[in-house]
Amino acid sequence: MTPQNVLRQSRAPLYLQVAEILRQRIARGTWREGDLLPTLSDLANEFSVAKITVRQAVKLLEQEGLLAPRRGRGTTVLPQAPAQRPLKVETRLADLLEVYSGDTPDLVGLEDRRAELPGSPEIGTPAPEGYHLLRRMHSREGQHYCIIAIYCAVPVFERHAARLREELALPVLLRSPDIDIRKAHQTLVIGKSDDETASLLGLAIGDPVANVRRILCDASGQILYLADVIYRGDYIRLEMDLLA
């Protein structure tokens, strides 16, 4: 499918779509620091849009600090900030501890209350005592990268409430000798950000996100921990060793 056909399928303004294509080319290294962009006429022809549309897109990227006009030369690509450290979606429970090393929970929590488990969990049975919900954001290098809703079985939560409110929950649970995890399950689904997610994570409505659910069960199959996590799509990287 040609670029112009793709542009016509979206409801977003054309200049925003062109800006995103140019932004991605810079991010992927198609254009590097100091490179000159094609002329407005060339870009307008490539995308089958008016030159004013391309000019608006370029102006937007100039405001973002990605491009700069050079008198008599054209528009050049500026040095880019170092890319954020990606968050690997591990497929082994032990490896998750290393992933979260150095991260911090946002201490301004969104919710802290008793709650029922959401939906129908993929594995396990609910704890008869019920659950405590901690909903908050996690940060990495000053950037909120996920919203997490943690449902912890009440007996477990009451024993570790102080630490669970101040620290990352998964390391607390996995390193506590009184908690015996015998089964763990994780699912990942790609979705789009809604208005609340966009506002909290600094995204646009409809931007890609990764929805992850993690469930930890004890030997009897009782759910001790269930977490629903919404990650920024640009912070997620899934790697798998196919020969392992």
Automatic annotation (TrEMBL):
Annotated Pfam families: GntR (PF00392), UTRA (PF07702)
Molecular function terms from GO: DNA binding; DNA-binding transcription factor activity
Keywords: DNA-binding, Transcription, Transcription regulation
Single Gene Ontology BP annotation: negative regulation of DNA-templated transcription
Domain of life from the UniProt record: Bacteria
Domain HTH gntR-type residue range list: 12-80
Keyword Glycoprotein appears in the UniProt entry: no
Name under which the protein is recorded: GntR family transcriptional regulator
